[in-house]
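dude i think i finally got it to work??
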Amino acid sequence: MFDFLLGPSKRDVWTSVAEEIGGGYAEGGFWKRDYLIKKHQAWQLVMDSYTVSSNSGSRHSSTRYTRLRLPFKNPAGFRFQVYTASIFAPLGELFGMQNIDIGDSKFDDQMVVKGYRTSDIQEQLNHDSIYDKFLKFHYIRLTVDEERGFFTSRFPEGVTQLKLTLRGILRDPERIKTLFLLATFLIERMVQLDLASPESPEIDLTQF
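look at this
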């Protein structure tokens, strides 16, 4: 509502960025979201947006999010999460995991890192091409998870996804390009450290 007050439309911005990065933009319909898609080596990157609604008594509210997903083969079951401390900190506490410092004071002060394979996570994130890009966003969350149906995973066994989630609809072209770069740096780093397979997961997210 009132999106016209925010400047160029999401469709215009996402279409323009898709052309710049060698991707594509597909307009959604009644049942499907519109999305920006790009192929990088064996992987498919798909950015879309969604709304979460909540009710508290007589009050109704909704929050819009932008997410970028990248499915990959994860034979070792490597999982971790990273999120901006001020917004997402309570979520990680549910898992009883200690916060992991990666060794960069600015990143460690602003971001929360959770996971069980501490040394692998530190090695994965301790690279300026990665942590610098996290800090370009006010609120961001990274998870490694599965696409869930009602009761089970919608992915084949051994396949998970990198999922980067931002609050709000992302309309800044430079930040969109940074988000895609962050996802590609993350997956390339995981492959380099033998934490992910370079093979295609053979998943088409546009069908989900």
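The chain is about 30% helix and 30% strand.
im so relieved honestly
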